[in-house]
Amino acid sequence: MKKSLQSQLFLNVGASLLIIVVSMSFILFISWRIQKIVDTQFRNERFFQELQDEIEEIRTPFLDYLSSRSSKALASLLIKEQTLRSMIPDDQRIYDSVNLSVREVYHLLEAYLDMIDIAIQEKRGSAISEYTQLYETMENMNQYILSLIDKISLKGFREQLAGYERVINVSRQLQFWNLLVIIFAFIWAISWMMYSLNKITEPMHLLSKTAEELSKGNFNVEDIHIEAVAEVSRVVETFNRMKNDISQYIAEIQQQKTIEQEYLNEKLRNLKMEQLLKRMELYTMQAQMNPHFLFNTINTGVQLAIVEEANKTAEFMEHLADFFRHNIRERKLFVPLRHEVEGLRSYFYILNIRFPRSLNLNLDIQDAIDHDYQVPAMILQPLVENSVIHAFKGIERKGSIIVRIWQDKTYLRCSVKDNGVGMPPEIIESLMQHSFRTSEISSKVMGLENIIQRLYFFYPDNKEIIEIRSAPGQGTEVLININMEEEPCITL
Fold first, then answer.
1. Quick one: 273 exposed, middle or buried, by C-beta within 10 A (0-12, 13-18, 19+)?
2. Among candidates 485, 476, 322, 305, which has minimal Cα distance to 389?
3. How many degrees, rounded to 5, is the angle at CA 233 between CA 231 and CA 235?
4. What is the tens place of the pLDDT at every residue in 367-409?
5. Residue 4 gets which letter from DSSP?
6. Are residues 469 and 402 in the same domain?
7. Cα–Cα distances in angstroms (integers) from residue 73 to residues 382, 446, 476, in the given order
8. Which of 55, 210, 309, 419 could covalently link to 475 via disulfide, CB atoms 3.0 to 4.6 Å apart?
9. CA-wise closest residue to 378 among 418, 417, 348, 342
10. Are residues 67 and 122 in the same domain?
């Protein structure tokens, strides 16, 4: 499995940094050991120096007390004695010769302090010869303790110095190996970087050469197949798909040229039908034809088409006559639901003839619905017409209009849904107002607004009589909800 560039960077840079961190940690550890050795030696030296100072300083108040028996000298002596006793540790374990000498110093110091207590008692008892002889003995012991401390300091320093030299030698070796590790990590990182860059630059070079061929119109070049990091591989795969899609699209355009004449003929037939409808409308307005004259004229056209064996035209004229008959005869405000369905079926047939390839129509009616139920006249066909005229402008996909009629408990629900361009929210809000303002609404939606206002007029108490569900680019659905238990305000 190919690793992505990000994961490779993370792993390799992380490994390099880890090696460097470990190497620097070794150096830090050795430096810490050296500092610890030096600090231990200096701490011991400071302690023995302080001990020597205290031993030397206790002689002055001791001699003053023996000479003058001053209470001030006695107080100072007792303080110094207490300080020296506090410096003697409780744990005096023996690990080596140095610790043995240190233990001897502490024992001698304890004996020396005990002698001070005895000398104080002799002084209080005025035993001059006894504390004088004791003082001389203590002076010799004092000098011996000081000399013994000097020997301990010198011996300890020499032993620590030997350990310090060993640590320095090991530190130098570690620093040398650490330098080699860092150099190796640097060389390895540079090598990996060059390898990764080659995996990026080589595919990009092939991409540029292939793109140059495509710009010349040569779409028969082979796909790019090369091993690269995941991100570049995705770019190469996308480029290959784009090249193949463009090539396929060009082939489809060439194929469409072969059937272009058929599309032109179909458009010509549609134009002729539209001219026929407009001419019939013009003749009706000019001559003020009555319905019977119009139907007889259309029937004559049907018979003429049959004689000429134009069966499809005859069928179209029959549905056109039914559609006109439905629109002219419905002078009532309310009609049975089946009349609306019959007129819609005829209108669907006419639309299928006009737009056989660009429009898909679907009429879905619940089987158990009451077709004799009274509904407002002309509420479905204008909605379909509004979708046909305005919903599919500027889109290339095939249009679809679905009309559904079903019964939901006490409600009769009628839905007209398309997959067109949709309507913006401000237009929907303006249409759903309980008023009819032709000056504020575009003529493109006048048929829809007419239906909305009529439904509001017939069912003033039903706030949800009609709904518009739409958004730009997502189509539009107009849903009519008629409560079958609610009587309209006008039924003529």
1. middle
2. 476
3. 75
4. 889 888 999 888 898 899 899 988 998 888 899 999 999 999 8
5. P
6. yes
7. 125, 122, 112
8. 419
9. 342
10. yes
| pTM of the predicted model over 0.90 | no
Query: What is the reported pLDDT for 447?
Result: 73
Domain that holds residue 469: 360-492
- Asked if 116 and 141 touch (Cβ cutoff 8 Å), the reply is no
Structure tokens that stand for 31 in this block: 């430096």
71-87 vs 97-124: helix axis angle to the nearest 10?
160
Q: Which of 173, 189, 205 is a domain's end point? A: 189
Predicted confidence (pLDDT) per residue in 445-472, tens digit: 447 888 888 888 889 888 899 999 998 8
- Tell me the range of 18-27, 33-42, 144-153, 270-279 where mean pLDDT is highest: 144-153
Lookup: tokens for 261: 């004449």
Quick check: is 276 in a domain? Answer: no
Residue range 53-96, pLDDT digits in tens: 888 888 888 888 888 878 888 888 888 888 888 888 776 565 55
Predicted pLDDT at 469: 94
Domain assignment present for residue 416? The answer is yes
Kind plus residue range of the DSSP H or E element containing 448: helix 446-458
Long-range contact list for 169-176, CB < 8 A, 24+ apart? 170/30, 171/27, 171/30, 171/31, 171/34, 174/26, 174/27, 174/30, 175/27
Cα-Cα-Cα-Cα torsion 383, 455, 492, 296, nearest 10 degrees, comes to: -10
- Ordered alpha helix ranges (H), 216-308: 230-258, 260-287, 291-307
Task: Outline where 355-424 has alpha helix (H).
Answer: 381-390
Total number of domains constituting the chain: 3
Does 74 share its domain with 123? yes
Identify whether 308 is part of a domain.
no
